[in-house]
């Protein structure tokens, strides 16, 4: 009968930092790259807006084609064929229109965002004043700023189409990158505390 004796390997002094940096380092680098990309997008807002419109059009066209295919697949089982087919045709046509005329698609997207800001801000402002729940002032402030932003974007339209979408995309990427960097540094701190114990 063979007896298996396992020896506990002593940790090498350089192992722990290498493993620790592998856990948080990749996330930090990704966050740093996203932060730089967000700053670049903010610096070239028109280009970021145009790329966003083209991406939106492409995704809409792909979604429309997928919906048409799904319509023909559910037709055999008695599903909502016409709903899928007509919705898919509409999505495909709008997506192709945005791909062919990205500036017009960008202008339409800007109008939609202005309407969203205004309506969302109005909703938040009214409900916060009517309900007066704890810390309702923050919701009211958000609503007032959102209404102001919607009015400004609408008043400057179509010029606002040049900067709005790219600026929003740049801000989103920038804050996502900063959040990833902050999260990775929190992981690093927690791992150091674990190794210190």
UniProtKB/TrEMBL annotation:
Swiss-Prot/TrEMBL keywords: Membrane, Transmembrane, Transmembrane helix
Chain segments annotated as transmembrane: 21-40, 46-69, 81-100, 106-126, 138-157, 163-182
GO cellular component, one term: plasma membrane
Protein name: HdeD family acid-resistance protein
Organism per entry: Pyxidicoccus fallax
